[in-house]
Amino acid sequence: MRRLLRGVFIVWIALRYGLDELLLNSLNKPWLRVLARVLTVGRRFTAPRGQRLREALERLGPIFVKFGQVLSTRRDLLPTDIADELARLQDRVPPFSSDVAIATIERAFGKPVDTLFTHFERVPVASASIAQVHYATLKDRQGRLREVAVKVLRPGMLTAIEKDLRLLRMMAAWVERLSADGKRLKPREVVAEFDKYLHDELDLVREASSAAQLRRNMEGLNLVLIPEMLWDYCTSDVIVMERMNGVPIGQVARLREAGVDFKKLARDGVTIFFTQVFRDGFFHGDMHPGNIQVSLEPATFGRYISLDFGIVGTLTEVDKEYLAQNFTAFFRRDYKRVAELHIESGWVPAQTRVDELEAAIRSVCEPYFDRPLKEISLGMVLMRLFQTSRRFQVEIQPQLVLLQKTLLNIEGLGRDLDPNLDLWSTAKPFLEKWMINQIGPRKLLEELKNQAPRYAKLLPELPHLLHDFLKQRQHSDATALRELLAEQKRTNRLLQALVWGGVGFVFGLVVMQLVVRIRLF
Question: Are 341 and 318 in contact (CB under 8 A)?
Answer without folding.
Answer: no
